Amino acid sequence: MSLFQGDLTSFMSSSAAKPAPASSVSREQESPGQSQIYPTLALPMRSRRLVIRDFVPGDLGALHAYSERREVTKHLLWGPNSVEQSRATLAEFMTQQGANPRLRYDLALGLPGGKAIGAVSIHLDDIRLGNAEIGYVLHSDYWGGGFAFEAVQALTAHIFEHWPLNRVWARCLESNKASRRLLERLGMRHEGTLLRAERIEGEWHNVLMYALLADEWLAGDR
């Protein structure tokens, strides 16, 4: 999910199950004599407090619980959502899971018990240039606990340490101070400002563009 879009999230894996590899790549034939490597993400992925996983049908209530809140969506280009809109969003997320190659990962941020408290996304629309867009949204009851940063940090580390990508980027409204702090804490660089680039409820907003290169991440002290 970008920070603007609904693209942004019941499983219980057996403790005796063999762990899946962190990642792999798939080769999709584009034309005779030419192919493209697409990275794939083995899910679920675990961070210190979260389980990052695909959405499932039972997540509708949890997804709608944050998607209907104005305080959550006021800095986004969607919402607050009706139940029907949340249902359509969930259906879109689940459709993406069967795509081959899969270029959009809109994933649940789950607590260990299974409850989804938000979403995080990786979009690979610019994969041929080695770029990935990352985004996130979090239920307001969990703001201030570092959950969004934990999820974004885990995915960024995975991208640069396991995938052959060069650049991760993100965008947020200039008015979204919390997202700006998160991206800067992650080590992203403010690359530019798009003036009056989005209009929300009749008001124009500037959009900030942030990015981080693979060599910058790998050279960082973490």
Automatic annotation (TrEMBL):
Annotated ranges, domain N-acetyltransferase: 50-214
Annotated signal sequence range: none
Transmembrane intervals: none
PROSITE patterns linked to this entry: GNAT
Gene Ontology molecular functions: acyltransferase activity, transferring groups other than amino-acyl groups
Phylogenetic lineage: Bacteria, Pseudomonadati, Pseudomonadota, Alphaproteobacteria, Hyphomicrobiales
Xref: Pfam families: Acetyltransf_3
Chain residue ranges for the region called Disordered: 13-38
Gene3D superfamilies: 3.40.630.30
Keyword Protein biosynthesis part of the UniProt annotation: no
InterPro entries: Acyl_CoA_acyltransferase, GNAT_dom, N-acetyltransferase
Protein name: Putative acetyltransferase
UniProt keyword annotations, A-Z: Transferase
UniProt keyword Transferase present: yes
Compositional bias per record (Low complexity), positions renumbered to this chain: 13-26
